[in-house]
Design a protein that fits this description.
Chain lengths: ~130, ~200
């Protein structure tokens, strides 16, 4: 098989996930798009591992091992991410990312209650590490 | 590579045609996932995308990864996402505000990124072919040997990470002043999916 087929499909899926992360408002839909991006990377890893396991003499099958690790880390990430989204929803009554702007810089100067900004920081951090 | 002499662009093999068709379905389902306005439908189209990717892994002869993909992603991640949609009281019908205002900027960024990536990838691997004949490159035996000979230490570290994620999900989804639910209550929950689902159920209280 031509190596360009899986590589191009992976690039397309990654950019679809990128669009979803940037354009969606619901936090759970953003998590779905993150899953799409992770899966695109997995496809790339598997394709290059299958190619190199034939083209090179001896490999460690690092592509497939890393794919398994990525899948496990993605499962952990989705669990933590959903727990954070649910806790934000319980505190704020919404899971709309555009309304969670306590840490935004600039003009708005509303000061919410004490524990709310912690949740949002954690939310942003989760998205950044995902 | 050497095989470049015997292959051609204009004569795709059967595996390539199958890969292309399944890839088309996968990409279409991914597009619907990120554009639909019905939240539950997005999760269901995500199942089609992830299942299509499992078929692509099978076509690339990576059987073990394909079944792990079906088990973890289709089996547990989508169920978790549906639980999350349910617990945040997502509307069942169309929700008019699923997309934010920077939709067109996002579209521009994504299209430019796709064009750049595809250009680079096609230009770089124009004459590279994967040899799919012979023994499968990702059977359970091969993957298991590689995992437990060369990758044992990362594998064990990963189990510690899963345990940390399990405890973290439980701590996060407890109420602030939990009355009678000790944190050790999910300790026997086994792998990540079960533990996180339990944490989600706990969060519903």
């Amino acid at each position: 098989m031509h190596l360009a087929y899986p590589a191009v499909l992976s690039a397309l899926l990654f950019c679809t996930g990128l669009y979803g992360v940037l354009a969606r408002r619901n936090a759970i839909l953003v998590l779905m798009s993150v899953e799409l991006m992770l899966n695109a990377v997995n496809l790339n890893l598997v394709a290059f591992d299958v190619w190199l396991s034939r083209a090179a003499e001896e490999t460690l099958h690092s592509g497939q091992a890393l794919t398994l690790f990525t899948i496990a880390i993605a499962a952990a990430e989705i669990g933590i991410g959903l727990a954070i989204v649910l806790s934000v929803y319980r505190n704020r009554g919404t899971s709309d990312i555009d309304k969670l702007r306590d840490t935004a810089e600039g003009h708005e100067s509303d000061t919410p209650d004490s524990e709310a900004p912690v949740d949002e920081k954690a939310d942003e951090k989760a998205e950044a590490t995902a | 590579m050497l095989a470049a002499d015997t292959h051609g662009f204009l004569s795709p093999t059967g595996v390539e045609i199958a890969f292309f068709l399944v890839g088309l379905v996968t990409f279409g389902a991914a597009l619907v996932t990120v554009t639909t306005r019905q939240l539950v439908h997005a999760a269901l189209w995500l199942v089609v995308t992830l299942g299509g990717l499992a078929v692509e892994y099978l076509l690339l002869t990576a059987e073990f990864i394909a079944w792990v993909q079906v088990l973890i992603y289709v089996g547990s991640v989508v169920v978790l996402l549906l639980f999350g949609l349910m617990l945040t009281r997502a509307p069942i019908g169309r929700s008019p505000d699923a997309d934010s205002g920077n939709r067109w900027a996002a579209l521009t960024v994504a299209v430019i990124a796709a064009a750049a990536l595809i250009w680079v990838v096609v230009d770089a691997f124009r004459t590279t072919w994967i040899d799919l004949d012979g023994a499968p490159a990702g059977s359970t035996e091969v993957t298991g040997k590689a995992l437990f000979q060369n990758w044992v230490l990362p594998f064990e570290a990963l189990s510690v990470l899963l345990l940390a994620a399990l405890v973290g999900a439980i701590v996060l989804s407890r109420k602030a002043k939990a009355d009678a639910t000790p944190a050790a209550d999910g300790g026997a929950a086994g792998p990540d999916g079960g533990g996180a689902a339990k944490a989600d159920k706990e969060g519903a209280r």
